[in-house]
Amino acid sequence: MTATTVQTTTVDTPPTAFRGLVRTTLRLHRSALWFWVLLLVVAAGALLWMYGPGGDAMWHLYQPESCTAPGVDSCHFQPGSAINRYDTVSALATGLLSLAPLLTAAWAGAALIGRELENGTAALAWTQSVSPARWLAAKLAVPAALLVTGTVALTLLHRTVWSANGTLWQSVGRQWHQENVYIANGTLLTAYALLALAVGALAGLLARRALPALVTALVSLFAALYVLGDLRPHLWPVKTLTGTDGYPPYRDTDMVLGDGALTSTGARVEDPLCVDDAACLARHDIVGFYRDYHPASHFWPLQLVETGIVLAVAAALTVAAFALLRRRTA
Hints:
Layout: H1 17-28, H2 30-51, H3 53-60, E1 62-63, E2 76-77, H4 81-119, H5 121-126, H6 132-171, H7 179-184, H8 188-207, H9 210-231, E3 239-243, E4 255-263, E5 268-269, H10 278-283, E6 286-294, H11 299-328
Antiparallel strand pairs: 1-2, 3-6, 4-5, 4-6
Helix pairs in contact: 1-6, 2-4, 2-6, 3-4, 4-6, 4-8, 4-9, 6-8, 8-9, 8-11
Transmembrane segments: 33-52, 91-114, 135-161, 181-203, 210-229, 307-325
Keywords: Membrane, Transmembrane, Transmembrane helix
Protein name: ABC transporter permease
């Protein structure tokens, strides 16, 4: 009688494929990771300098006794090289932060998605017990976590510097409503970084080649930034100042959207430019003047409404990317 021993081999497929894909993503894109860390360090270093020695040097040049009227522009600084240095470093800090979404879109489209589809490494990963949906989820989750961590940290640091030295920023021509300052000073920096990631991923899936994906991602993100920036002043009701003896005064920190003349019926018309000529005003039926503006107190309402729109668009593009991938790999 012959005894036969049957060995049963169990194929273990633990749920570590996703974690392995995360590690692979970090390893493949370690150059981009180090570049992101370098950008964070340089931007944080610039902001810390502005908060510390740079700000102290500027405050030594400040002349509060020259503030004879409300508004920053009426307060003067003594001439000195510290002003030029502070202006340069503040431009560097806000410029680096404004570059983050653009660099993210370019990298996501060209390297993260486009190159892997073009080289076939994505198709290889799909044969290694990793579904296309999980592959894309890992590709988006890793950079999204890094982007959120970095941008939130920089935003908090930027707001700290702005809160402490807002007068200094405004003295070198940077107001709360200017593009770079506005985005870096609130939740929009993180929202736009996530939008850029979604735009780049969808562009990579559509083009399936690195260079066309890069161009598509950058053009699309530029278009989104332009449209949303143009829409920004209309996301919250404006305030209106009126006056009968010329234009009403406003604070230097206000975001002025438009002004003009008022007729006796309350209609808004173009200013005939004869404020001191009573006959001219009567001939044009001008009885007053108006000015539409956003005060500084509108920063957070405008910021949060735009953030909601940006995140909604980013979510829609992400859903579209998964749907496109599922259709192509069905």
